[in-house]
Amino acid sequence: MDHVLDLLEQALDPATAEFSARLDRLPADARGLRMREGLRSVRNLAAGARRQRMLTLALSDTAAAISSLREGDNALREIVTRTRAIVGTDMAYISLNDPGRGETRITETDGVWTQAYRDIRMPFNTGVLGRVARADGPIQVSDYLAAMSVEHLEHIDAAVAKEGVKAILGAPMRIGGDIIGALLVADRWSHEFSQDQIFAVEALANQAAVALDNLERLAELTDSMTRLETANRDKQSSIGRLERLAAADEELFAALSSAEGLPGLAARLSSILGRQTRLLNLTVRIDAGDVGGERLHAARALIPASRHTNAPVTGTLEDGTAVVVMASVIEGETLGGVLVEGELSADDDSILRRAALVLGTFISHSNASRRERERQRAELLATLISPPSDGLRRHTATAAAAYGVEDGSPFRVALVDGAPRSLVDFEESLEANLGEQLLRAHFNDRLYLAAPERVFGWMADFLGRRGARQWGGVRMAHSETLDSLAAIGAEFALAERILTASRSLPQAGNVVGWRSLGTIGIFLANADSQVTQSALRSSLGPLLDYDAAHGTQLCDTALCYLDEGRNIARTAAALVVHQNTVRQRLERIDSLLGSDWNAGRRALDHHVLLVVARLLAGTPARR
User: InterPro entries, from UniProt (predicted)?
Assistant: First the structure.
């Protein structure tokens, strides 16, 4: 009995080398033969169990390895590598089905030598590969090229022959009842595959299908998560953009409702955009908010292009700085533009468009307010120049005092004349430097001013520094220092006479008062006195009456003759008449004033009084 148990133990132990020798020593009778056969069966069963256990462990290990992979290519490579090792074949490969093309193609291999074999595409139901890809179970051939059970294709047979493949075994890979491909093994020698090998390939094919299905689901889940994360980021980004736009709107409307003006609006925009921002006002030529006007000349040229496209346009300043400009258009009128240095994001683009709208609204409102203030100043100044017969009202004096012009405080009045564009430039310069606190108005194409002594001093210096030529012919006639509102009307009348006189006296400069005109100024300052009027009548009466009665220009001829040093030729050239005409006029003047009218002291008297007469008459010099 102990001997039998020993043999049974050796039958279960694969490492025992004495098992066969001891079997041979069993009795040769029927009982011994049955015992020998039984022990061999036990040993074979044990060996099969061991192989099954090892295969199960290998499959389990393979499943764990495959499940840890997150990329399809890596998973396929792991499957074919382990399949070849477990089944013990020369090669292993996977094919995936393409229902649209009606074929299956090899996608991953291990142990394959030739590229032609790796590139095999088999139509469904042809060859082993094509049949397995449509089969319900495993298919094998012991010698592929000699097998009559499969449909052969010439180019496939050539690839098989080149690779040297003989025996092939394949099993389908299924997902939810659908065959997605096949797992195959092959040897370069002819033989039948064992049941263990068939089982292993089927099991591995099932594992491969599950792994690919899981990877596909994982990919779908990952893709969904990615889309969700992207959507969430987009949503957060959109919320961020909306919050930034809302904050920008709040800042812009705060600037619009405040008294900060264009500089304040520009500062808020610079803060919002995080870069230098400038505002251009096209309704004025000189603006306090337009810093660096010369530098921004190129930027102004971009505004029409922006208006045409109704979008921001890019350009370059004269110093090479890249800028973006958006035009401000209100009711079809281009009022200005917003300039930002550098490139803009989509969010910045939206803010820039909003800023342009706010700027246009700001300029439009400012211009309307400016026009209303101009109207009020004009009414006030007109009342001061021509007060009611019963005197100025208290509210008029109070309104004038708001500009620093009041009884008991030193102030001056001034009258400014020049070309229309030059006059506008001068007034805009005054506003840019002094703001709105300057009493001024336009009457008869001239600028009337009333300002405290200190402000007048600044204006006179400001105008005088550039000279009349640089100001385009702008000239200012002014009063002496005043301290009574009642004198304003008469002083403006004097300023008109001084301004007219200065036009005939180039040496007078572009800031003139009666003192700067010498003798003429004294007469002008007293032009309304009885003495001056009497002097004019007594000296020039016959000449004035003759011109009035006959429509002649004897006064102008006499003045021009004296101005030209009593030279007939120069006088004729200045008056654009013939010399004989000058001689005839001089004879008439001699008959009216006496032949000595242009000699000695009488010449000086007549010269001065002729100038005064012309200025009082308001007629321009005839040369």
Answer: CdaR-like_regulators, GAF, GAF-like_dom_sf, PucR_C-HTH_dom, PucR_C-HTH_sf
Residue ranges in the chain modelled with pLDDT below 70: 1-73, 245, 248, 255-260, 285-298, 466-472, 504-508, 518-532, 615-623
From residue 6, alpha-carbon distances to 15, 17, 19, 150, 554 in Å are 14, 13, 10, 52, 165
Residues 365, 369, 370: CA angle, nearest 5 degrees: 115
Q: Which two tokens stand for residue 144?
A: 């592929």
The whole-number pLDDT of residue 347 equals 73
State pLDDT tens for residues 198-211.
Answer: 988 888 888 888 87
- pLDDT the model gives residue 110: 93
Beta bridge partners of 443: 446
Domain 70-221, CATH among 2.60.120.260, 3.30.450.40, 3.30.70.1290, 3.40.50.720: 3.30.450.40
The CATH superfamily label for domain 530-617 reads: PucR C-terminal helix-turn-helix domain (1.10.10.2840)
Please give the Cα distance from 142 to 138 (Å, whole number).
Answer: 13
Across 282-408, where does the E strand assignment appear? 313-316, 322-330, 333-341
Torsion 223-224-227-232 (CA) sign? negative
CA dist., res. 333 & res. 145, Å (int)? 88
The CATH class, in words, for 386-507 is alpha beta
User: For the chain, how many residues are written?
Assistant: 623
* Average pLDDT in the chain: 80
CATH number, domain 258-371, options 3.30.450.40, 3.40.190.10, 3.40.50.300, 3.30.70.100? 3.30.450.40
Segment 215-253, tens digit of pLDDT: 778 777 778 888 888 888 888 877 777 777 677 677 777
The token duo for 406 is 């009041």
3-state DSSP assignment of residue 610:
helix
Q: Return contacts of 326-329, CB within 8 angstroms, 24+ apart.
A: 326/352, 326/353, 326/355, 326/356, 327/303, 327/356, 328/356, 328/357, 328/359, 328/360, 328/363, 329/356, 329/360
pLDDT at 454: 92
**How far is residue 621's CA from residue 575's CA, in Å, rounded to a whole number?**
10
Per-residue pLDDT at 51: 54
d(CA 404, CA 140): 114
- Rounded Cα distance, 107 and 114, in Å: 14
Helix (H, G, I), strand (E, B) or coil at 177: coil
CA atoms within 13 A on the CB side of 426: 34
What string of H, E and C letters represents the secondary structure of 509-535?
Answer: CCEECHHHHCHHHHHHHCCCCHHHHHH
Query: How many other C-beta atoms are found inside a 10 Å radius of the C-beta of residue 85?
Result: 13
